[in-house]
Write a structure and sequence with these properties.
alpha+beta, Jelly Rolls, Arc Repressor Mutant, subunit A, five-stranded antiparallel sheet, 10 helices, 9 strands, 20% strand, Homeodomain-like_sf, HTH_AraC, HTH-like, Transcriptional regulator, AraC family, DNA-binding transcription factor activity
């Protein structure tokens, strides 16, 4: 499984946290993320475990974990971060990376890549965005090298599965049905179901609903839209349908509670 080739959203930026505003979180994030102080330092909680991260180090976070940051009291902390946005297939990625240690020392190459990526954020053109994405991918490749992580070689994903995933990822908000997805993937619906279960251990319908729920989760965290508006923006039939499906993919937590839990103490 090539994590970086399977995903399309990459981002990197940098913020400075003053000693007077030394905390961030707790919140649940949905990205595959690296956070690295350039100056200052941070104590970082991932779920129930605290880590100390000095300038020149980085910390690795899997999607779906709760994060909280306490920055230095005696100086400003300039902190960079990069992310694979809403990585898929999420369960397999988390399983593959579960044993990767959290804290590592940044290499000189990683810092150089980060500086170049951050210089292009926010991007002002499609060409700059492509370069930005490529640099963030290179940052994760360098991180995997530092961490000693080697991806297990698996049978190549069937082209029809890749085409179907691209259709879903780009048009999840539309009224997509399995027969339509199969036509665009170039195979029969029954064959597409078999290929999906073989290659990503899930059905096309399950992947579609999971994708919708993940995008909805991001909107709950990052926008002020109501749950009803998010439901329609993400392809759900109505708010009740959204709530039911969201709870199925988020351990029984409804959208409103998910937002409240994620925002709890974020500005503290």
């Amino acid at each position: 499984m090539n994590i970086l080739q399977l995903n399309e959203g990459f981002e990197a930026s940098e913020y400075t946290y003053g000693a007077h505003a030394r905390s961030y979180g707790p919140r649940v994030h949905q990205d595959l993320r690296l956070v690295y102080p350039y100056t200052g330092r941070a104590d970082v909680r991932i779920d129930d475990i605290w880590y100390h991260v000095e300038a020149g180090q980085m910390i690795f976070l899997l999607p779906g974990t709760e994060e909280e940051y306490l920055f230095a009291r005696d100086c400003d902390s300039s902190v960079g971060w990069c992310a694979v946005e809403n990585p898929q297939p999420r369960e397999r990625i988390c399983e593959a990376l579960a044993e990767v240690p959290a804290v590592h020392t940044c290499s000189e190459r990683f810092v150089e890549l980060a500086a170049m990526a951050e210089s292009l954020y926010p991007t002002s053109s499609a060409a700059e965005r492509e370069v930005h994405f490529a640099l963030v991918q290179a940052m994760f490749c360098e991180f995997f090298r530092i961490a000693g992580y080697q991806e297990v070689q698996e049978p190549q994903m069937h082209p029809a599965v890749r085409r179907a995933m691209q259709v879903i990822d780009k048009r999840y908000a539309d009224s997509l049905e399995l027969p339509q997805i199969a036509v665009e993937a170039g195979v029969s619906a029954q064959h597409l179901v078999r290929l999906f279960k073989r290659d990503i251990k899930a059905s096309p319908s399950s992947y579609l609903w999971r994708t919708r729920c993940e995008h909805a989760a991001r909107m709950l965290l990052n926008t002020g839209f109501s749950a009803s508006e998010i439901a329609y923006r993400c392809g759900f039939a109505n708010p009740n349908h959204f709530s039911r499906m969201f709870k199925e993919y988020h351990d029984g937590v409804p959208p409103g509670a998910y937002r409240r839990n994620a925002w709890r103490g974020e500005s503290g």
